[in-house]
Design goal:
It is a single chain. The protein is an alpha+beta fold. The chain has a single domain, classed as Sufe protein. Chain: A (Alpha-Beta Complex), CATH 3.90.1010.10. 46% of the residues lie in helices and 20% in strands. It has five helices and three strands, in the order αβαββααα. The chain has a three-stranded antiparallel sheet, covered by helices on one side. Helix 4 packs antiparallel against helix 5. The longest helix is centred in the last third of the chain and has 19 residues. It is globular and about 40 Å long. It starts with a helix and ends in a 6-residue tail after the last helix.
Length: 118
């Protein structure tokens, strides 16, 4: 039992961060989920995104976005991540995804004391 406690203390205490935005009507995302949802696992010591999930209909979209966001340092602000999404995601739900990312970042920044306007 002591070994488990030591292992638990050695692991970083990550946080789970979620945010949602309304999906555009007429898209499969809207028909299935009604919202764009993002879930980010973040290490608050490094501010890096360690894992991510999105409410996308296809597995390809899930993998694509995971590859975009994993490793991103939230202490650098959200605009770099937003630019990446705008440059590489050409779909009707782009604006909703950006809104959800900004919302997640704002919540994170306020809780850990980053500048939420960055």
């Amino acid at each position: 039992m002591h070994a488990d406690s030591a292992q638990t203390r050695a692991k970083p205490k990550t946080i789970l961060l979620t945010a949602y935005a309304k999906a555009p009507t007429g898209t499969s995302m809207y028909e299935v989920y009604k919202h764009v949802g993002i879930v980010l696992e973040v290490d608050p010591r490094t501010h890096r995104i360690l894992d991510a999930e999105f409410t996308f209909v296809t597995e390809l979209a899930q993998r694509f976005f995971r590859s975009l966001v994993i490793g991103y340092d939230l202490s650098q602000g959200v605009e770099g991540l937003v630019r990446l999404v705008e440059e590489r995601y050409w779909a009707p739900s782009q604006k909703a995804l950006v809104m959800a990312l900004r919302s997640a970042y704002q919540r994170y920044a306020e809780r850990v004391g980053l500048n939420p306007t960055a």
